[in-house]
Amino acid sequence: MIKIKTFGVIRLGSGIKEFDAEPSQIKTVEDCFDALNIKSAPDADKFSFSEAQVFINHTRTTTKNFAIKDGDEVWLMSPASGG
Question: Going residue by residue through the chain (83 aa), what tens digit of pLDDT does each one get?
Fold first, then answer.
């Protein structure tokens, strides 16, 4: 299972705090955004890699093609999440 968590504007705009995804559905960081946009309400904002900072297992990645594997935790953060 892959755990995907959202923060900042991405959380507010999608209405989703976190969700689990099957490894068969998520192969790359880009797939995480596709899954988030599908799970969001039909009228919710749509998000993409270019609008976010992405961390995988607490390490930032700068490529949307980064491979995701079973057991990973992915954080999708708006560039300014506050604090």
Answer: 999 999 999 999 999 999 999 999 999 999 999 999 999 988 888 999 998 999 999 999 999 999 999 999 999 998 875 55
Q: What is the DSSP string of the chain?
A: -EEEEEETHHHHHH--SEEEE-TTT-SBHHHHHHHHHHHS-TTS----GGG-EEEETTEEE--TT-B--TT-EEEEE-S----
Q: How far apart are CA 33 and CA 37, in angstroms?
A: 6
Tell me the sheet residues that pair with 16: none
Q: Provide CB contacts within 8 A for 67, sequence distance 6+.
A: 27, 28
- Written as one letter, the residue type at 46 is K
Q: Are 75 and 55 in contact (CB under 8 A)?
A: yes
